[in-house]
Fold this protein.
Amino acid sequence: MKRRDALVLAGTALFLAGCWGNTYTYKQKLTVVVQTPDGEASGSAVTEVRANVGDQGVLSEAIVNYRVRGEATVVDLGHGKYLFALLSSGGERTATEYWAMDAFYKRVIPDYPSGSIDRLNTFYAALLSLRDRASMARDQYPLLVTFSDINVPTSVKEVKPGDLPAAFGEGYRLKSITLEITDEDVTRDNIQRVLPWSHELIGSIGKNMKLPYEHILNQVNDGSFARK
């Protein structure tokens, strides 16, 4: 996954010698709008992100440790059809931790790029009071999926943003995905109402280690739908 200015080093980087500094907590609302044969359908979800900005020290790079709580966005398209914008991602798709960085960094810090601690602190401090909405670029979209049978987890299939008819039939089109910083409460229970099995899911939907890492059944897991 391409990341901005090497600002995030995940996993083992968190255990290397470094100095953790300021923590910023903000809420973001993702809204997905779809044109259907019956008119517009939309869905929104609010997630809370806690970003801890630090200096890795050993490699002299700024890093951010994220924690997310909330749920994926679900759009009820009618006729038993649903579109999901997931929290986690695979390949080049963008995960929820980075949505605000992708959508608003250039607005707050015009001379992007920079991964310095000062600039990251400036960005997140400004983000706390920012009440703005941005249209997400195609390469910033989260992973979009649907299910051939909503009751069968392994019937999941990826939905290409530019080709909703392939998943849902003629007359369906993705109109927009927008992100805004908000004071609204974190969204709960929407996913569980539509996917009651999701709260019992542990690990990937496929649970098949022989599948390629990039396979959709490996990319979708419990963290794709909800995080506490």
Notes: The first strand starts at residue 19 and ends at 36. The chain has a mean pLDDT of 87. The CA atoms of residues 43 and 84 lie 9 Å apart. The beta strands are 19-36, 39-55, 62-71, 73-78, 81-85, 133-135, 144-147, 156-158, 173-182, 226-227.
